[in-house]
């Protein structure tokens, strides 16, 4: 089925589900009397996020019998804070933001990740005008010395935390870069900044990089891919420990089963999976992010 047709099917069904959820009786609000709130780190184009998460909220509503609403945020830190104070109960987190949130909310649980998140990668890119050329291991990162460089968000796993880790592994002193590194705020913004020549080099998550090349919305003719990092665990859905207490026993299980049951052979499911850039969701556990936690502590990013 064509992407446009899939989107029409999904949006039509999502609208019906949202009407059903909002029109339900006492059980719709949960024991708290309010809706179940979800959010996500703003790692990509807001237009894409605003298509994906309201539609997924509708699917969560159908699975749980509660009102479910998506709360967009402006930066990564806002998601962690909202999760910490209980303004949201379910969040799509990166590896680092998930670890930060679990540190602040003991008992929070990583319940599902995409198939690609078990072995995720960052990609270093540069302008061709910089003279930088592809290399094969972390030691090649030393070539970035003397060049301007941008990360993504300051608390991005694939756009800052792990790239910085590999820079140290490769022997690149960040002070050797020209000027202070930038923080673009998102992977899309990093790609645009490098493509425009605002920075000579940058780093993005592999999924967004591949999508940008396929979409052709940004002229990448002057950009070269330098290096793909080794893999690490990254994005996941994180649930608060009081989710079942607040919204009824089985709520966490219902959401998890919905995610794990998304089937690419079904048009509605396929559209959601396509927007997530995945073939399926799989189970995960907090322990899968031990490496991320260790690197974050080393870099002073856990408070």
Share of β-strand residues: 15-25%
CATH class descriptor of the largest domain: Alpha Beta
Give the CA-CA distance, first to last residue: 47 Å
**Number of individual domains:** 2
Number-wise, the strands total 11
Number of helices: 11
> What is the annotated CATH architecture of the largest domain?
3-Layer(aba) Sandwich
CATH fold category name of the largest domain = D-Maltodextrin-Binding Protein, domain 2
Q: Which residues form runs of ≥5 with pLDDT under 50?
A: 1-31
Cα radius of gyration in angstroms? 20 Å
Q: Record the strand order, biggest sheet.
A: 2-1-3-10-4-11
CATH superfamily of the largest domain: Periplasmic binding protein-like II
The rough form would be described as globular
Supply the helix-strand structural class. alpha/beta
Largest sheet: 6 strands, mixed
Query: Which H/E pattern describes the elements?
Result: HEHEHEHEEEHEHEHEEHHHEH
List the helices and strands and how they pair.
Blueprint: H1 3-22, E1 36-40, H2 46-64, E2 68-70, H3 76-85, E3 90-93, H4 95-104, E4 109-114, E5 122-127, E6 149-151, H5 157-170, E7 182-183, H6 187-195, E8 201-205, H7 206-215, E9 223-228, E10 236-239, H8 243-247, H9 251-260, H10 267-276, E11 281-282, H11 290-298
Parallel strand pairs: 1-2, 1-3, 6-7, 6-8
Antiparallel strand pairs: 3-10, 4-10, 4-11, 5-8, 5-9
Describe the structure in your own words.
The chain has 303 residues and is of the alpha/beta class. It has two domains: 181 residues, D-Maltodextrin-Binding Protein, domain 2; 108 residues, Periplasmic binding protein-like II (D-Maltodextrin-Binding Protein, domain 2), CATH 3.40.190.10. A six-stranded mixed beta sheet has the order 2-1-3-10-4-11, with helices on both faces. β6, α5 and β7 form a beta-alpha-beta unit. The relative contact order is 0.19.
């Amino acid at each position: 089925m064509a992407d446009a047709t899939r989107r029409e099917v999904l949006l039509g069904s999502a609208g019906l589900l949202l009407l059903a959820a909002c029109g339900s009786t006492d059980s719709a609000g949960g024991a708290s009397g309010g809706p179940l709130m979800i959010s996500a780190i703003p790692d990509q184009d807001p237009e894409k996020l605003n298509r994906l998460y309201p539609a997924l909220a509708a699917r969560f509503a159908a699975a749980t019998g509660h009102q479910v609403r998506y709360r967009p945020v402006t930066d990564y830190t806002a998601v962690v804070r909202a999760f910490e104070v209980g303004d949201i109960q379910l969040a799509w987190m990166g590896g680092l933001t998930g670890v930060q949130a679990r540190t602040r909310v003991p008992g929070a649980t990583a319940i599902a990740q995409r198939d690609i998140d078990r072995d995720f990668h960052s990609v270093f890119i540069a302008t061709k005008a910089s003279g930088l050329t592809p290399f094969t291991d972390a030691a090649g990162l030393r070539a970035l010395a003397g060049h301007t460089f941008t990360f993504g968000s300051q608390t991005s796993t694939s756009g800052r935390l792990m790239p910085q880790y590999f820079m140290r592994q490769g022997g690149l002193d960040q002070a050797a870069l020209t000027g202070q590194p930038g923080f673009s705020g998102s992977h899309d913004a990093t790609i645009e900044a490098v493509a425009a020549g605002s920075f000579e080099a940058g780093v993005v998550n592999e999924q967004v990089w591949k999508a940008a090349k396929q979409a052709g919305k940004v002229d990448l003719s002057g950009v070269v891919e330098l290096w793909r990092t080794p893999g690490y665990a990254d994005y996941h859905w994180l649930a608060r420990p009081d989710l079942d207490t607040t919204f009824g026993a089985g709520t966490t299980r219902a959401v998890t089963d919905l995610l794990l049951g998304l089937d690419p052979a079904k048009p509605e499911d396929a559209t959601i999976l396509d927007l997530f850039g995945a073939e399926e969701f799989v189970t995960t556990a907090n322990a899968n992010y031990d490496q991320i936690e260790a690197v974050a502590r080393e870099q002073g990013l856990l408070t």
